[in-house]
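Dear colleagues,

For the upcoming journal club I promised to circulate an example of a predicted protein-ligand complex. I picked one with zinc ion because it came up in last month's discussion. The inputs are reproduced below in full, followed by the predicted structure.
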Amino acid sequence: MSTFVQEETWGQSEMAELQFMRLKETVNRVYQNVPFYRHAFESEGITSDDVRSLADLQRLPFTKKHHLRDNYPFDLIATPMDEVVRIHGSSGTSGKPTVVAYTKKDIEHWSDIVARAIYMAGGRRGDLLHNAYGYGLFTGGLGLHHGSERLGCATIPMSGGNTARQITLIQDFKPRVISATPSYLMNIGETMKEMGMDPTESSLKYAILGAEPWSEEMRAAIEALFDLKAMDIYGLSEVMGPGIAMECVDCQDGLHIAEDHFIVEVIDPETLLPVPDGDDGELVFTSLTKEALPIIRYRTGDIASITREPCRCGRTTTKMSRVKGRIDDMLIIRGVNVFPSEIERYILQMDELVCHYQIHLHKKGVMDLAELHVEVCESFFDALPDKDLTHPIAEDLVKRIQRTLKMQALVSMDVFLKKPNSIPRSEGKAKRIVDHRSPTLSVSK
Ligand SMILES: [Zn+2]
């Protein structure tokens, strides 16, 4: 693979033709082989023959996460089990994991899609790629791994955690590309500084970051920390894994969707009707080439928008915006809806603060209360008389943060300043929300 693939520059009608052909195959496959889909279609009065155009996709019922759980572990698989060569799953915050499966051909397609994504982000054959995504049931590690090998990169299967060792190998092997969650790459960079190294002198030039929502301000902070280009990758195991969409290094403005393998829709999560291009809504994906676990109109719970404008990089595929947050993560604080990633943006606009924060949720009577715990930077802390975070200078800062959140995000929150290095660091997905409202419910994202 020496350049981007042909399908990425197709015109819309050419792409629509391919999508319809593949949608038809997918619909037939699930209708014939998966009782769940057959029943779901029939309860809408539809058979596979009723899909006569791409627009007919909208007549098909949605698939939701609980459908995967209800059919645990293997009841949604559309092929004989002896054609399945890989199983992945996600732990899920409540009870049973969701299980997904792949045939040999599925793995080949996925590898191609991720290879394309890495290429889009600046990776090239012959590069060293340090993969700090977790290996295991989670699709991140192995998904990036196979794509990286497919592109012809020397792939370092580092997995998450053991930060000191990650740093040693980055220093010794000199990888040009790294893949990780944004919060973990931040952690690696800050640890390098604590160890007396200068991350801007590392060999890293391109970072492929995803698996948690992050902000433009976080991108700017990571790019400055390492002197590299950071690109957003999107995916979820229920649809395939990482690589469903990827930002190009040329623009860093929206993620190109692999439309020859997936159809995207954006819907209003309340009315379930499509929203216009450019408007935020819930992302819905239909797989077009998957054999073991084809998925029809999967409601991702992720909020984003799409654009069909061609990109400066030359690709013509539909682009999605970065994910603003998950519907499940949306906080309702005194009647105002807000995503943690929005709060992150405002934190990172203040020089006295660093990107380590947690939002603690409490219940007071019938009211939900939110507290922001955020670390101050070393220089602010060191300059504080007696390093006292209740000093009037610190109190002024608290008031400024509260004012900013009130003015810009319209939320009222109690704010607690924390000393440097007091909030737990991420070795994978950052834990941004700590929920004290119910002892059994702890949201970890
Ligand atoms: Zn582009």
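Two points we might discuss: Residues 248, 250-251, 256, 311, 313, 315 surround zinc ion (CB under 6 Å). Residues 12-33 form the longest helix (22 residues).

See you all on Thursday,
B. R.
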